[in-house]
Amino acid sequence: MGESGDNRSGDLLREMREGSVEAFDAFYARYSPLIFGIALRMLGDRMEAEDACHDIFLEALRRGGRYDPQRGSVDAWLAIMTRSRCLDRLRRGKKLVHREAWEADAIPGTEDAAEDKVLTRLQREDIRDAIRALPANQLQAVVSSYYGAKTHSEMASAWNVPLGTVKSWVRYGLNNIRKQLEKRGWQADENDGTKEVRK
C-alpha cells in the first residue's frame, strides 16, 4: 500500500479512537483479508484464524496510537501484531501448523519490535464486563465468534440472517467494547491508543 494509503489508514486509526463506527468499518474492510490470511497461514484452521482476527481488531482499537509511520506501513504493523498473537496461541498448546513455512519468510519494510504480552487478569475482566454490556445481538455475535469459534457464515446460517448482518454485529460489537472499556477507566490518548488509567 502506498504512502497515501498509509496516511488514510492512519486517519482511520485516529477516527476509530474518537469513536467513529464508519472508520472502524472502513479499517475492517481494508485489513481483515490481510490479517485473516496471515492468521490462517500460521494457525492452519479457519475458525482459529477468525478468532485471532477478532483479537487483532480489538488490539488495534486499543493501541492504534502506537502506530509509528516512520517504522513501517500499517500493513506491516498489523502483520507483526498478527504474527505475535498467533505465536502466543501456538505456544498455548495449539497445533504448530505451517509454522516452519511462516518463520522462513520475512515481513518486509519493518523493524521487528517486541510486542506486549498477553493482557493482565484485570484487563481481561474489564473486557469480559464490556462484552456483557453489549446489546443482545452484538453480544451473541461477539461471544459466538470470539469464544465459540463460530465462523460468520455458520452464525448467519444458524440464526437465519444475512451474512452482512452478522459481520455488522461483530464490528459494532467490537467498537462498543472499546467504548465500554473507556467507561471502565481506559482512555484514548495520542501516544498510546486506549490504555488503562485507574483513579
Automatic annotation (TrEMBL):
<dbReference type="InterPro" id="IPR039425">
    <property type="entry name" value="RNA_pol_sigma-70-like"/>
</dbReference>
<dbReference type="InterPro" id="IPR014284">
    <property type="entry name" value="RNA_pol_sigma-70_dom"/>
</dbReference>
<dbReference type="GO" id="GO:0006352">
    <property type="term" value="P:DNA-templated transcription initiation"/>
</dbReference>
<comment type="similarity">
    <text>Belongs to the sigma-70 factor family. ECF subfamily.</text>
</comment>
<keyword id="KW-0805">Transcription regulation</keyword>
<keyword id="KW-0804">Transcription</keyword>
<dbReference type="InterPro" id="IPR007627">
    <property type="entry name" value="RNA_pol_sigma70_r2"/>
</dbReference>
<protein>
    <submittedName>
        <fullName>Sigma-70 family RNA polymerase sigma factor</fullName>
    </submittedName>
</protein>
<dbReference type="GO" id="GO:0016987">
    <property type="term" value="F:sigma factor activity"/>
</dbReference>
<feature type="domain" description="RNA polymerase sigma factor 70 region 4 type 2">
    <location>
        <begin position="125"/>
        <end position="171"/>
    </location>
</feature>
<dbReference type="InterPro" id="IPR013324">
    <property type="entry name" value="RNA_pol_sigma_r3/r4-like"/>
</dbReference>
<feature type="domain" description="RNA polymerase sigma-70 region 2">
    <location>
        <begin position="27"/>
        <end position="94"/>
    </location>
</feature>
<dbReference type="GO" id="GO:0003677">
    <property type="term" value="F:DNA binding"/>
</dbReference>
<dbReference type="InterPro" id="IPR013249">
    <property type="entry name" value="RNA_pol_sigma70_r4_t2"/>
</dbReference>
<dbReference type="InterPro" id="IPR013325">
    <property type="entry name" value="RNA_pol_sigma_r2"/>
</dbReference>
<dbReference type="Pfam" id="PF04542">
    <property type="entry name" value="Sigma70_r2"/>
</dbReference>
<dbReference type="Pfam" id="PF08281">
    <property type="entry name" value="Sigma70_r4_2"/>
</dbReference>
<dbReference type="InterPro" id="IPR036388">
    <property type="entry name" value="WH-like_DNA-bd_sf"/>
</dbReference>
<keyword id="KW-0731">Sigma factor</keyword>
